[in-house]
Design brief:
mainly alpha, 55% helix, three-stranded antiparallel β-sheet, extended
């Protein structure tokens, strides 16, 4: 459906129905959980502890996490069959990420008369395309379940193959003031002296 030029759609998210806002929140929470499991998978394959895993992966994009995880399992998987299983799992995770992206990257607009909510899908690859897709709460809730289950399937695989994250055994140091002035103020410790 195309935008109706004569209609002034309501783009204020505060005016979206409560059940729709809840479903959108469920999608984002499910996506965060799935991404967290992918992070754990990467850290487990690398043999680093949970804190180091976070330090390494926290700012990676979701596609980069997928690429890194798939490269690591290819390097370290016990068989081609295991690599194939992980590829299948990541195909599902990537498809789930696409569902998440549809929800969080497209504007939502309410029709001022009917109250119907639409997702405004914009594409500009070669030519501009803008269309309205009706939004249904039950569909978004189903997408949230697909997103969550994609991550849980990876977690079940990890458990089946005893790929569990390594707990941190050393305490985590309090964050340091890393600015130049602070670094100069701290004198470099001498050999055998800890600071």
């Amino acid at each position: 459906m195309a935008l109706e030029p004569a209609v002034i759609y309501d783009f204020d998210p505060h005016n979206l129905p409560e059940d729709l806002l809840r479903a959108i929140g469920l999608v984002t929470a499910a996506a965060a959980q799935t991404e967290s499991i992918v992070q754990q998978f990467i850290g487990t394959l690398l043999g680093v502890d949970q804190a180091e895993t976070i330090a390494l992966t926290a700012h990676m994009s979701a596609p980069l996490k997928s690429h890194v995880a798939k490269a690591l399992i290819e390097l370290n998987g016990v068989s081609a069959g295991v690599v194939d299983m992980v590829d299948d799992l990541f195909e599902a995770i990537e498809a789930a990420a696409d569902k998440r992206n549809v929800v969080v990257h497209n504007s939502l607009a309410r029709h001022p008369e009917t109250g119907e909510v639409f997702s405004v899908r914009e594409k500009a690859r070669g030519s501009l395309q803008v269309e309205l897709q009706p939004v249904r709460v039950d569909e978004i809730e189903r997408d949230a379940t697909v997103i969550y289950e994609a991550g849980m399937d990876l977690m079940r695989f990890m458990l089946a193959y005893n790929l569990t994250p390594t707990p941190r055994t050393r305490p985590i140091r309090a964050p340091l003031d890393r600015r130049k002035k602070a670094r100069r103020a701290r004198k470099a410790p001498t050999v055998g002296q800890a600071q």
